[in-house]
Amino acid sequence: EAQVTQNPRYLITVTGKKLTVTCSQNMNHEYMSWYRQDPGLGLRQIYYSMNVEVTDKGDVPEGYKVSRKEKRNFPLILESPSPNQTSLYFCASSPLDRNTEAFFGQGTRLTVV
Amino acid sequence: GESVGLHLPTLSVQEGDNSIINCAYSNSASDYFIWYKQESGKGPQFIIDIRSNMDKRQGQRVTVLLNKTVKHLSLQIAATQPGDSAVYFCAEGATGYSSASKIIFGSGTRLSIRP
């Protein structure tokens, strides 16, 4: 089954404690991206990657890092989480030539206290 | 499930009627536009897209209209069904740049179906 898998689905952590949210896709897609979703703000793009070792900032990259060492994985790293990073996070992937047809993961609800 | 948003504009439609969800976009350089559907507890799901060289595109029970003059996009859903209840997002993107794949989402509209 074609899917984008995020882990964990729910996470509560404390300010400053480094964390990683993993994202994996099994569709051999070149394009992957991370979004955060906050009430009334829709989805805002954090980072995206057009292929292995190619990453670029989205609209709200501050406080986040990503890496793309393999085509299927695109982890989101919060080196020092802060309460304003409490949000619902989505990973997405798509073929590069059809990047409008994105497949989204189920989401990760992160709470930073 | 995950909450999508507490203060979204809501469109309430009678089951069986047609729904029209509107969206205004901001970037004149955007050359493609997308509609996504997000059901409670799930990630967004692609519905349909349209390129800027078109003004209408039809899918199964859905039609997207694009008016570049006023930067307006609409999604029409024919014969709305209970399963259409969701939050709908429009999104815009631009190609032709070195960082070509940024997609910007709108804040969403909640579609509610009355039985």
Provide keyphrases for this structure.
heterodimer, A: 113 residues, mainly beta, seven-stranded mixed β-sheet, four-stranded antiparallel β-sheet, 50% strand, globular, B: 115 residues, six-stranded mixed β-sheet, disordered N terminus
Question: What would your notes on this structure say?
Answer:
The complex is a heterodimer of chains A (113) and B (115). Chain A has no helices and 11 strands. Chain A is mainly beta and 113 residues long. In chain A, a hairpin with a 2-residue loop joins strand 5 (42-51) and strand 6 (54-57). In chain B, the strands form 2 sheets. In chain B, strands 1, 3, 4, 8, 9 and 10 form a 6-stranded mixed β-sheet that branches. Chain B is built from no helices and 10 strands. The two termini of chain B are 23 Å apart. Mean pLDDT of chain B is 87; it is low at 1-5. With 115 residues, chain B is mostly beta strands. Chains A and B meet through strand 4, strand 5, strand 9 and strand 10 of A and strand 4, strand 8 and strand 9 of B.
| Alpha-carbon Rg of chain B, integer | 14 Å
Number of contiguous helices of chain A: 0
**What string gives the helices and strands of chain B in order?**
EEEEEEEEEE
Number of helices of chain B: 0
User: What is the assembly state of the chains in this entry?
Assistant: heterodimer
The overall average pLDDT of chain A, rounded, is 94
- Poorly predicted parts of chain B: 1-5
Number of strands of chain A: 11
Segments of chain A where pLDDT lies below 50 for 5+ residues? Answer: none
Chain pair sharing the greatest interface:
A-B, 31 and 29 residues
Instruction: Report the major sheet of chain A.
Output: 7 strands, mixed
Portion of residues within helices of chain B? under 10%
